[in-house]
Amino acid sequence: MATGNQEWQVESIILGIHGLNNKPPQAQIEDWWRAAITEGLQKNCQIVNPEFHFELVYWADLLYKYSLHDDTDFSFDPLYNSQPYRPAQSGAIKEYKDGWLDSLQRGSFDVLGKTADSLRLRFEIEILSDVLLSRLLRDLHFYYDGDRFINNRQGQSELARLALRRELNAAIRRHASKQMMVVAHSMGSIVAYDALRDLGQRDPDLEVPYFVTIGAPLGLPYVKTKIIQERGYDPRVRTPSLVTERWVNFADKRDTIAVDAHLADDYGANRLGVQVEDDLIANDFMLRDGQPNYHKSYGYLRAPEFSRLVKEFLSR
Q1: Angle at Cα 16 formed by Cα 180 and Cα 216, nearest 5°?
Q2: pLDDT tens figures, 185-204
Q3: Is residue 286 classed exposed, middle or buried when 0-12, 13-18 and 19+ CB atoms within 10 A define those classes?
Q4: Distance (Å, rounded) from C-alpha 124 to C-alpha 118?
Q5: Could you tell me which CATH class the domain 5-314 is placed in?
Q6: Taking a C-beta distance cutoff of 8 angstroms, is the pair 190, 164 a contact?
Q7: pTM of this prediction?
Q8: For the residues of 162-176, what is the DSSP string, one character each?
Q9: Residue 235, φ and ψ in degrees, nearest 5
């Protein structure tokens, strides 16, 4: 048990990339991600004062003119952030225990996923998918819109999905000399997957030892179809070549965004034999009103299974 500061390798860094919808300013959400990871290391790994290098790859300001705020005097404002980071209640953080139902549900999702993929590719239900996505996952629809251009950091108009990928590409290149763990939440997992594939084709010497996806919609037939269409894969998507050691996918079965919690049957191994490993967790995050949010990044970032993986990475 650590009784003081844990000494990690200084050349290691955790790069986070956030998910759907508008966010607080970068410095605020970066502090909250760091706080959630720290809370997990303290409570799950008994490390009193964990120190690690962390940077959040931020793209919300490319899609939203104004960020969310936490001023309770203006709680009626649509830009009021009703879901700030909050430390877990005593005893709330628990390890997920797999049961026989998990195997049954995994098989059911595999069958449903293959059926949905077949229908999607056979009948080309593009219009229906676009309508649903525009209502339920606006940012995801925005990302895949082939006519949607935004200004990147250089002030140049660029296809939205390319501008978002550029943010992670730049961070990875900036920290190329360090050991990296990329942690991607929600739609950030799609941005990260695409960015890593792009970098692997352009700069095969770059390496990302650990790729971690949390609350990821990468198993959705629509998403896999878009990846196949853009990259010409046939018939299966696979682990980005830059990922040299592990890709771990954490999902809560109650998370509606990560409805297909098992990606191992959807994504093949890369040339190094690295294939996604699925791990179910229990997301403990509770809103101010006491209602659970099983998709919230903070609950994933302090789950025992995630904390042990972070400790493993930093202790290499």
Answers
A1: 110
A2: 999 999 999 999 999 989 98
A3: middle
A4: 10
A5: alpha beta
A6: no
A7: 0.88
A8: HHHHHHHHHHHHHTT
A9: -105, 0
